[in-house]
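=== RUN LOG ===
request id: a7f3
mode: sequence -> structure
chains: 1
length: 113
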Amino acid sequence: MPRTAFSLTQQVDRIDIRLEKGIAKVIFLRHYTELQIDCASGLLCQWRNGFNDFVEHLHDGTIVDRLLGTENEQVKISYTTITSIGLILLSFSGFWMWRNPKRMRKLKSDNQS
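=== RESULT ===
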């Protein structure tokens, strides 16, 4: 194992166990290091930076919580709530922009008849 692994925090976020492969994947809480450990021998199979976890945290706003050190994922919840409300408003306004001209044309043609 590289020497730098001992200087990183050791708080574990989760452990994914793959029984069919006999491997446990350890993902840490404060950094994106990922360890794969052979369950039969206990030896380290792979050590790498988890780029997928970084992209996921960037996408859902968790990275801002970690940078600011907030508890209870306040930024993540606020970010996803605001984004969700914005998406709903854009959906309704887009539907209205599509539907209203058709409704106006129909009303105009009904008035001319």
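=== NOTES ===
The beta strands are 12-18, 23-28, 33-38, 44-49.
Residues 71-113 form one domain.
=== END ===
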